[in-house]
Backbone:
């Protein structure tokens, strides 16, 4: 073992990065977005951690600007789940909303809570959006249904953790994610065809493509480390040394890929926003 694909969640990265780095292992996540893993004065991850998706300091402002400028939202209720990912994303979104003149109300629920009826009763009738940075899509589904049941006009806007068209599918709701649809990218067609052949009947989601990209980065870094060692891998840490220099021309999510010169994050990463349609399908709206 010379590299790790993952961890997938921000909490898992924070809990394991020191151990993985001490073992000399590069760990490349396709989905952990907590900002403090790679940025700030108290970074939770080590220099051995890399991610191929942008972080919540990108997601929060992206979501907030869409609410304010595209949806013309005047009042937004933000509900965090009292855990670091959720609180951090809610904070980033709320700060940008306030800067854009949007009225915000902050609520919190326990991370294990699955009934939001009591919170929904607190949502003012003139609220436009309820922002739900949860990590479980069924909870966003329940929240959206309970808003409807109580006659609230507000639409749910979920973060990347709620992106699952099988589990969060209330029409009119919104979802942001670090991966847009890839089926329109010409050089991805062969990859998709191969995946469909091996996974008949399965639906291509948003989390698989970044995982493929993380594997590409890992293999490229290993190849570079072996080349530097004249055909031999000097050590696990030789892989860590090479990850940052990896560049991929035809990136599975579109365009090209390289890391930021300042952090172990992708350069110019962006989030895609979807709206859930009447048939439950996710339509790109930004």
Residues:
């Amino acid at each position: 073992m010379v590299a790790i694909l993952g961890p997938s969640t921000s909490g898992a990265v924070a809990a394991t990065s020191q151990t993985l780095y001490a073992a000399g292992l590069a760990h490349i996540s396709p989905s952990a977005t907590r900002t403090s893993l790679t940025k700030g004065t108290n970074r939770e991850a080590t220099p051995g951690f890399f991610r191929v998706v942008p972080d919540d300091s990108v997601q929060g402002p992206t979501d907030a600007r869409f609410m304010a400028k595209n949806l013309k939202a005047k009042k937004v209720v933000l509900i965090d789940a009292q855990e670091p990912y959720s609180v951090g994303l809610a904070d980033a979104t709320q700060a940008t909303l306030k800067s854009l003149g949007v009225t915000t109300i902050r609520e919190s629920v326990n991370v294990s809570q699955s009934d939001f009826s009591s919170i929904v009763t607190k949502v003012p009738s003139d609220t436009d959006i309820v922002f739900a940075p949860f990590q479980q899509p069924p909870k966003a589904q329940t929240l959206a249904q309970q808003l409807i049941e109580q006659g609230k006009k507000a639409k749910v806007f979920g973060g990347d953790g709620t992106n699952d068209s099988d589990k969060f599918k209330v029409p009119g709701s919104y979802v942001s994610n670090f991966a847009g649809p890839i089926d329109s990218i010409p050089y991805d067609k062969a990859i998709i065809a191969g995946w469909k052949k091996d996974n008949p009947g399965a639906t291509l989601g948003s989390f698989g493509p970044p995982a493929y990209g993380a594997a590409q980065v890992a293999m490229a870094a290993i190849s570079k480390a072996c080349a530097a060692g004249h055909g031999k891998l000097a050590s696990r840490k030789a892989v860590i040394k090479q990850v940052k220099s990896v560049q991929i021309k035809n990136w599975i999510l579109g365009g090209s890929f390289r890391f930021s010169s300042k952090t172990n994050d992708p350069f110019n990463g962006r989030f895609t926003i979807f709206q859930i349609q009447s048939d439950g399908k996710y339509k790109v709206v930004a």
Q: What stands out?
A: The mean pLDDT is 97. Residues 80 and 281 are 26 Å apart (CA to CA).
